[in-house]
Amino acid sequence: MSLDVPADLLARAERGPVDDAEFVDCVRQSLPYAWQVISEVATSVDSSGFADNEVPPPSEAERGQLLRALASDAIRGGLERHFGVKLAFQNCHRVAAFTPSAVDSDRYRAFISPRGQLLNQSPELRDC
Q1: Is residue 2 part of a domain?
Q2: How far apart are the C-alpha atoms of 113 and 118, rounded to whole Å?
Q3: NCBIfam families attached here (predicted)?
Q4: What pTM was computed for the model?
């Protein structure tokens, strides 16, 4: 299960749409390591519109949090809206944030390209 959803939030979701802030707070509480990494990357965007994290998670549990957060369109989209960035993801730990204006940049295209993915491989990351 990706998120620990409080009963009152689940009940509201069963009745209809929920507030984005409540959803993002649920993500923050459920996936604290993923929240920490993504918030650090999102708030560290430099003047070129880019920041990334290259530090592998300390355990499989934390790695799983990043995978769950970034593999879910709803979670990823909520985080992007909350922080005002476009997230990009390689392997199971390299998370980058781009400002909306940097999404059309050479750096963004290089990061999300097959070449970028191949160049970001190393033997210690093969099992991630």
Answers
A1: no
A2: 9
A3: SCO5389_fam (NF040488)
A4: 0.86
